[in-house]
Amino acid sequence: MKEKLSLNVSARTGAENVKKIRRLGEVPGIIYGNKLKNKTIKCPAKALHNTYVKAGENQLVTIEIEDEKIPCLIHAVSFEPVTGSYDHVDFYAVDMTKKVTTHVPVLVVGESPAVKTLGGVLVTVLDELEVSCLPTEIPESFTVNISTLENFHDAITVAQIKVSDGVTIKNSFEKVIVTVQEPRKEEVVAAPVPAEGAVPAEGEAAATGAEGAAAAPAAAGTPAKTEEKAPGKEKKK
């Protein structure tokens, strides 16, 4: 059974400075939708965080403001880019008798034999699905068990997701949610082979000439001198 969530908020006047509101540990926001006159509000940051963690953007939250109780979805949350603190929140008031469209997260469970045994790479294509239903019927999440993925390119599609009556998934049924791909092979770069008759580079020509000069005495029967190395330990590569 779903937990009933509620959040107490306060009305906010246009004269209030939003920076001061944030410094005092509150988050400015707005309530709109369902033919409701827009209400600018503020709420404690800690209470908003606790609610948002549980509700996400797909679970009903009863917003209590003065003497009103307004069923809402958390439509959008923005964060301060440097500190990551809550910057603003939008609540969308819903009509409990009309269907709404929202997004429901996909939870991956289990272990894929193709990953464990064959070394495949699990690829999640969709981490949420779009649904349409009454506000009271919004699923908390969809669970996908990947233990059925036994071979490379096995996949689970939207068509395999089971939903209760009254809930419609709006994504294409052919859309892949998760699949297993073959591991990438390391590329071996071969050394370039000079074309027949190609003119060697200046450095190469010099090296070739030196080699030829060193080889000439040996060819004439005179042993070539070799450079002696000082005794010592060779450096390990």
Give a brief rundown of this model.
The chain has helices at residues 18-23, 45-55, 113-116, 202-219, and strands at residues 5-11, 26-33, 36-44, 61-65, 68-79, 86-93, 100-109, 121-124, 128-133, 142-145, 155-157, 168-169, 176-181. It is of the alpha+beta class and 237 residues long. The protein has 2 domains: 5-95, Ribosomal Protein L25, Chain P; 101-181, Ribosomal protein L25, C-terminal domain (RNA Polymerase Alpha Subunit, Chain A, domain 2, Beta Complex).
Describe the main β-sheet briefly: 6 strands, mixed, barrel
Amount of beta strand:
35-45%
Instruction: Indicate the structural class.
Output: alpha+beta
Largest sheet, spatial ordering of strands: 1-3-2-6-5-4
> What does the overall shape look like?
extended
Number of domains: 2
Corresponding CATH architecture of the largest domain: Beta Barrel
Quaternary class: single chain
